[in-house]
Amino acid sequence: MGSLFSFPFYLTVGILFSYLNMWMTNKVKAQKPYVFGLLMYSFLGLITGVGLLSRGTFLILDILYFLGIGVLASNIFYHVLFLINVLAKRKNDVIYKQIN
Predict the structure, then answer these.
(1) Within 13 Å of residue 67, how many CA atoms lie on the same side as its CB?
(2) Neighbouring C-beta atoms of residue 68, cutoff 10 Å
(3) How far apart are CA 34 and CA 53, in angstroms?
(4) Residue ranges per domain, the chain?
(5) Which helix (H) or strand (E) holds 52?
(6) Radius of gyration over every alpha carbon of the chain, rounded to an integer in angstroms
(7) Which 3 state secondary structure label does DSSP give 85?
């Protein structure tokens, strides 16, 4: 039942953090944008995982579980987004070559 309630949180916070990450990546102009984006998505995934922890006492395994889920979800999203961008760029390059 917990995943049912955490899904809207991951979705809304994930979208906001994704836009924040894209803005920061464009602003910084990193030399290796893939690595920078991966590290930023991992860091923001940690923050999202911490946001799901409620107040109270936790075992270290509970904390690691939520942090791991946050990092895993954000990295899966980053790689899917990265793959979509690569495929869209290839398609645009092919269309551009056909026109010229």
Answers:
(1) 9
(2) 13
(3) 29
(4) 2-99
(5) helix 33-52
(6) 17
(7) helix
Q: Cα–Cα distance between 25 and 33 in angstroms, integer?
A: 7
Q: What is the pLDDT of residues 66-97, one digit of tens each?
A: 788 778 888 888 888 888 888 888 888 777 77
Neighbours of 13 (CB within 10 A): 18
List the structure tokens of 94.
Answer: 């092919």
Give the separation between CA 31 and CA 79, rounded to whole angstroms: 19
Q: How far lies 31's CA from each of 36, 60, 75, in Å?
A: 8, 36, 20
Cα–Cα distance for residue pair 53/35, rounded to 1 Å:
28
Residue 58: both structure tokens together? 């936790």
* Global pTM exceeds 0.70: no
CA distances from 95 to 38, 71, 78, 83, 87 (A): 29, 36, 26, 18, 12
State the distance between the two ends of the chain, measured CA to CA, in whole angstroms. 55
